[in-house]
C-alpha cells in the first residue's frame, strides 16, 4: 500500500469543505493550487480565493499559476513529488499536469455523471426540475468531465430548496466521496466505469446574464425552478416597469400560487404586503428581492416605500 502524497486543486468555498475533510482524515497534502488573486467589488480590492484563505491558515504549500502550461510552474509542481492530484471546482488542466502523478488525477464533480457536465451543475439540476442529483469522482482525461468514473453518491432535491442549500448538502457528500475514493486508490482496490454518451445527456452550461433572466411567459413551476436554482447566486433577474420607469430587479425567493385569473402575463399585482406576478397558470409571489443600489429585502419591506400602479409589468 503506497502512502498518498496529494496535490489539491480548487478555488471556491465548495472546494474548501473537501480539502478540509482530506486534511481531517490525516492524508498528506503536499501542495495546493488555486486561482490567481483578483480585484473584486466596488473598491476593486484584491480578493483571495476561499481555497487560498484555507491554505494560508493551515500553512499549506501554495501555488497560484496564471498559466498551467508555464515551464516554471510545471517544474515547481513536479518538485512537490506528489503521487496523486485531487481537483474540485478548478479549471481544465493541460495533459502535462493531469498526467504528472503516478496514481493519476481525479476530479469531484457535483452531479451524477454523465449528466450535467460543465460549469454549473448544482444550478442546472434545480433549474431543470430534477428530483435527485449527487456527486461523482472520476479520473481526468483530455475533455471536460468525461473521464472514467470511480464512484458516485446520490441525494434527493426537495421542491423548495435553493442552490445554496443544495451546494452545502453536496459539499458534505462530496467530502465523503473523496475520502472513499482516496481509500480505494491507497488500497489499489479501484475499478472504474467508462461514461456512456447518449442524446439524453443534460449539460450544465455556464451561467450568464441571458440564461439567468426570467421569462414570465413560462409556467409557474419553470419560473420558480429558475429562481431557486439561481439563489443566492448569481440570482434570477428581470425588469420591473411602471410609469415610464424601469428597474433591474434580482429575485431571491418566491412561491407558486396556482389559480385561474384574467390578468395579463407579467402584470404586477400588489397589496400592502404582497407582490405577485401573473403567469399563464397562476401567480409567482415574490418573497425577497433586490432593487438597484438597495439591499436585499422582503417584499413587504419594499412595499413600505414603493407603490406600484395597476399598469406595472415584469418583463
Name the descriptors.
seven-stranded mixed β-sheet; Methionyl-tRNA Fmet Formyltransferase, Chain A, domain 2; 2 domains; 29% strand; seven-stranded antiparallel β-sheet; 18 strands; alpha/beta; Rossmann fold
Can you describe this structure?
This protein has helices at residues 13-24, 50-57, 71-79, 95-98, 121-127, 163-186, 220-229, 299-305, and strands at 5-10, 28-33, 38-40, 45-47, 62-63, 84-88, 105-109, 117-118, 132-139, 149-156, 203-204, 236-242, 245-257, 268-270, 275-279, 282-290, 297-298, 313-314. The mean pLDDT is 95. The chain has two domains: 5-186, 3-Layer(aba) Sandwich (Rossmann fold), CATH 3.40.50.170; 220-314, Methionyl-tRNA Fmet Formyltransferase, Chain A, domain 2 (Roll). With 315 residues, the chain is of the alpha/beta class. Helix 1 (13-24) packs parallel to helix 6 and helix 5 (121-127) packs antiparallel against helix 7. It has eight helices and 18 strands.
Provide the CATH top-level class of the largest domain: Alpha Beta
Query: Which value, in Å, is the CA radius of gyration?
Result: 23 Å
What is the CATH-assigned architecture of the largest domain? 3-Layer(aba) Sandwich
Share in β-strands: 25-35%
Give a short account of the largest sheet: 7 strands, mixed
Decide which structural class fits the backbone.
alpha/beta
CATH superfamily of the largest domain: Formyl transferase, N-terminal domain
Order of helices and strands: EHEEEHEHEHEEHEEHEHEEEEEEHE
Could you say what the CATH topology of the largest domain is called?
Answer: Rossmann fold
* Unreliable residue stretches: none
Compute the number of helices: 8
Number of domains: 2
Overall pLDDT score = 95
Helix content: 25-40%
